TrEMBL record:
Entry keywords, A to Z: ATP-binding, Cell membrane, Membrane, Nucleotide-binding, Transport
One of the record's GO molecular function terms: ATP binding
UniProt-recorded name of the protein: Iron(III) transport system ATP-binding protein
Organism of this sequence: Hydrogenophaga laconesensis
Residues in ABC transporter domain copies: 4-225
Domain of life of the source: Bacteria
């Protein structure tokens, strides 16, 4: 479990300022939602934490250590995308194993970890299927398994439920919350859905035009009883 802190983070594309003096601290093990309309800079902030974007000003700290300049694969950060980004030609097993194979994980522990990750998301019986033979919800579970199998310290979720239909979305956000609790991973969940944020997150922030507007619990932000 790690903490994440952004201090005075700013990022521009050319003359367009996308993140403006963002300050935030996310506690170890916390499930944090980043809420805001399309174009407000949510993905940019997440990609920055993952190391795919670089900020021009400010500091980004994991457990108090500045990770600016640390390449993505050395950050111990796992990211799940809206479109799942699974390999279509690979089985579920091979999709989940991929990151471990890249890290040259020994065969025995690789098998154990992939099996455990599939069991965690309830897909142990689907190991030999291909992504196209799965439902949307199952594909998203594979994407989650593939990310948690590498044992990241920080889990980043970029609108992971947006491609699912309404009923499945409600079911999956429960699963997501349970998974996060089970693993105890510090998690940042990007969504434009207020209800989704309120039902999953310990705390949340609203991002508007690159400015972090509000940070607090659902009760504090939306006047819950
Ligand atoms: P959100 O995730 O909240 O929808 P984004 O972080 O994707 O917002 O985008 C924030 C702003 O940054 C948008 O105005 C978008 O057009 C702009 N933007 C994102 N990526 C790039 C890029 N690579 N080059 C230029 N502008 C970008
Ligand atoms: P070997 O190299 O000994 O044949 P691998 O570990 O490379 O075995 O696995 C071959 C294929 O079998 C993998 O690509 C994977 O799809 C599948 N596989 C391996 N172990 C399991 C398992 N425990 N459950 C389901 N499928 C598995």
């Amino acid at each position: 479990k790690v903490s994440l802190e952004a201090r005075h983070i700013s990022l521009s594309y050319g003359s367009t300022e996308v993140l403006k003096d963002v300050n935030i601290r996310i506690e170890p093990g916390e499930f944090f939602a980043l809420l805001g309309p399309s174009g407000s800079g949510k993905s940019t902030l997440l990609r920055l934490i993952a190391g795919f974007n670089q900020h021009q000003r400010g500091e980004l700290l994991i457990d108090g250590k500045d990770i600016t300049g640390t390449p993505p694969h050395l950050r111990n950060v796992g990211m799940v995308f809206q479109n799942y980004a699974l390999w279509p030609h690979m089985t579920v097993w091979d999709n989940v194993a991929f990151g471990l194979v890249e890290r040259k994980e020994p065969k025995e522990s690789l098998r154990r970890k992939v099996a455990a990750a599939l069991e965690l998301v309830g897909l142990q019986d689907y190991a030999q299927r291909r992504p196209s033979q799965l439902s949307g919800g199952q594909q998203q579970r594979v994407a989650l398994a593939r990310t948690v199998v590498i044992e990241p310290k920080l889990l980043l979720l970029d609108e992971p439920l947006s491609n699912l239909d309404k009923n499945l979305r409600v079911q999956m956000r429960e699963e997501l919350k349970n998974l996060q609790r089970t693993l105890g991973l510090t998690t940042i969940f990007v969504t434009h859905d207020q209800e989704e944020a309120m039902t999953t997150a310990d705390r949340m922030a609203v991002l508007d035009k690159g400015v972090l507007q509000q940070v607090g619990t659902a009760a504090a932000l939306f006047d819950f009883p």
